[in-house]
Every structure is written in structure tokens, then in C-alpha cells.
Amino acid sequence: MNNGIELLHEGTVTTPRGFVAGAVAIGVRSDSDKLDLTLLYSEEPCTTAAVFTSNNLKAAPVLVSQAHLADGKAQAVIANSGCANCATGEQGHADAIKMAQLAAEKLGVDPHDVVVASTGVIGPPHLPMDKIEAGVKAISTSPDGGVDFANAIMTTDTVPKYIAAKHESWTVGGVVKGVGMIHPNMATMLCFLTTDAAVDRGFLKSALKTAVDATFNMIDIDNDTSTNDMALVMANGLAGGDTIDAGHPHAAAFQEALGLVCAHLAKAMVADAEGGTKVIEVLVTGAASYEDARKAAREVVTSVGVKTAMTGHDPNFGRILAAVGNSGAAFNIDNVELYFRGPDGGDLCLFKDGAPAAFDRAEAVACLTPQEIHVKVNLAKGSESATAWGSDLTEEFVRLNSLYTT
After folding, report:
1. Catalytic: 188?
2. Tens digits of per-residue pLDDT, 57-68?
3. What is the model's pTM?
4. Are residues 79 and 221 in the same domain?
């Protein structure tokens, strides 16, 4: 598609008009010199949509935010890193409500228009509410605060993740965190998206779901869906113009911009995966249905066998075929084709006509040495396709996660 969208790689959630942010370090994180409490605020109330974790164990901030967003409106976000505030009982729920109240008092908004997010270790201890109360008072927000916002929501991330997409009439900005417990079922991470476009609530919900399903719901790091996850989009309308709905001339452009921002952030998560050294991109084509294509692509990137093979540069295409077979997607093995992309950009065929293709092993190994690996599987059953992204699995991942709370 070409709808006049320009990616702004230095853009963040404060790139769209009317959004400000700020952050402070208050010691919720054990490395207390790091930013760990942050606010995002819109000068005008926002039409808002969100998707949340499908995990049946939902953290207190998720439950509070779901209640606050029932009317489709928000004006601010308060978030902390260093403590998930999950499995913390009645006190945890009260703390999440208190965070919304503190932010509301600071910003002069209704507490029900504040979204609450927390990320960190699941389970006790409780949030240090005395520190949070002092921290909220100390935060200074500005249009330049988007990068600080992105830094303050990080846990084991090594780099902040942000981008914006600009249309001639409006802008979409976004930040995300999450490099562990990443196996999306709705949205496994914290993602905050903003736009100065005026957007109809129904279309905003639909556009977010479409973007999330094609991006965040197509990545995997460790096959764990977390408890605190959300993807949120806030539209304040300060760009002016008519409200964008499904029939508006800008509808396709808005969907594309939102999708581009989400795709960039999703791949950035995989590239920064805990212990990861590879981004594995799997394109499934020729599927009988889009759902079959999605299932097959996701199954390949979540396969532990595939992940470890990619770490060792082992062109074991049988593991990929086995994962496709385990996905439930329809195919006839006699018609399936499997390819690796070579360093020169050309495709190397490893499997075709129901049997291994004649290929040079050294050439296949060379396909697996770049930081980004490309796999293509043609199911030869139809015309639908889907792409998924996953990280490899390394000894460093095991080391990091064996020591996570110690």
C-alpha cells in the first residue's frame, strides 16, 4: 500500500500533537538509577481502544484499566516498571486504583480517565506507594518526554523501542516494552499508541485489532503469555478534520500507519529478545485460509526445535516441516515447498515435491548466519499468506531466566 505514510524513526508517543510525557527514577526497580515511573497525558480527552492479555490471571492494573476503558475514553496513562502488581490480592487492586487517583490529581483529570500499567516480577512484594506518590508529584511532562516514557516501562529490555508514522494530516506514534514472557494472545507486552487524528471509536477498535493480529499476535520469544499485557491507542483529534471512520477517505491510510508502527515495534521486541541472537521471519504462502497461514507461521516461530536449530545455524528443515504439520493447517506434503533466503537475497529450496531438494549444505548454513533469518513455506493449498517473527533460543536465555528474581 502507498497512502503517503512516512516513518519517523525518532518519533514517539509525544510526536502527535497534544501529547506530553515524563518519567522519574523512584526505586521500584532494583537498579534504582533507572527511570521506573512515568506519565503520558493528552491535552484533550481521547477516544481510546485497547486489547489485553488473554491470561486468566490478570494483574490489578489490567483489571482497573479494563474498567476505566469501558466507556472508550481516556486522557492519561500512569505506568511503572520493577513490579507487576499481580497476584497481590486486595492491596494490589487498591494500589492500582490509587495510582490512577494520584495521576488524576496531578494532571487535573477524572481518575476513571487514567489507564494504569505495571510491569516486572509477578507476585509480591507490593508496590512502594509512598515512593510512587512522591514520584508522581516530581514528574515533569513535556512534548519531548516520549523517549523517557519508553525507557521507564522497560524491564529486561536493553533498548527503548519507539517510532511514529506521519500522514500529511495526522500522525501515529508508539512505544513498546517486552523481551521476555512474549507469546501474544491479544497483546503480550505493554504498548502505547497515540494519534492526533479524530477517529471513530468503533473504527479505532477494529483498526487496533487488525494491526495487533498481524503484528504483536504474530511474534514469539518464549511461548509464555504474561499477566499484565495491553496494547492501547489514544486519539485526541487535535489534527482537526472530520472524524475517521471505516468509510472515510483516510481509513486505509490510518490502518496502514497503525500497522506500520505496530510491525516496527513487534520486530524490535523480537530483535531485543532475552538472550536472543536471531530474528526468525517465517512467511507462509499458499494457505487455504488466512487462519491456516497464521497458525502455520506461528507454530514454526514458537517451536523450540526450530529456535535451537537457528541458534546453531543448523539447516534442519525437518523441524520446520514438523512444526507446520503440528499447526493444524491443511496441506499435502507432496506439494509443499520450503525455502531459506540466502545472503544475496535469492531463495534456496530445501524441500519440494514431497522430498528433500538437492542443495549445498554450506549454502544453507550461510542462509542462517545473518541476524535476520528468512524462511518461506508454500503450502500449495490456496492464496492466503501470513508472516510471523520469533527469536532463537540460547544458553544465555536460560541463564537470564534462571536468575530473574535473584
Report:
1. yes
2. 999 999 999 999
3. 0.94
4. yes
